[in-house]
Amino acid sequence: MIGVKAQTKALFNGENLDGWKIYGTEKWYVEDGLLICESGPDAGYGYLATDEHYKNFIVELDFKQKADGNSGVFIRSSVEGTTVSGWQVEVAPPGYYTGGVYESYGRHWLIKPEEEKDKALKFGDWNHMKIKVDGDNITSWLNGTEMIALKDEIIGKGEGAILLQIHDGGGIKVKWKNIMLTPLD
Question: Which among 88, 91, 92 is positioned nearest to 101, based on CA atoms?
Fold first, then answer.
């Protein structure tokens, strides 16, 4: 169908966690229209996963880091307990590769942004992240700056949900809003 544009949809409704599932004991809640994650009593990893799976898409969202702020957006991922299989686009404090791609329980860092791109991060303020996942290709942008572009056949074969993460260690708080997804299939 020529001329048909993909329908962008909100993954977060600003009111509750409908369409999402919590993994772990970390806190995920809605306050003043924002999705908030913060360290819980176990100071362990925590995830919030979409009920639906997405293959090829663009996801855009805004995040604001408070305290440590180490988090991330997983693509084509699954989680069992608090063990995740998939790929994380990093959301982290300055100097810790926001926008890079990390494979948990696998190959670890697949690509880190060039050091000078770290200045795109506005720590403690709202940031806009865009992630495009299409076949073997993944590209991330932070506040309009392209952070990474990666072609990876293993990612291309991946299946699963979109997950937001809270890192282990305690003392972490991240706010999220405007989580929008545009399917590319």
Answer: 88
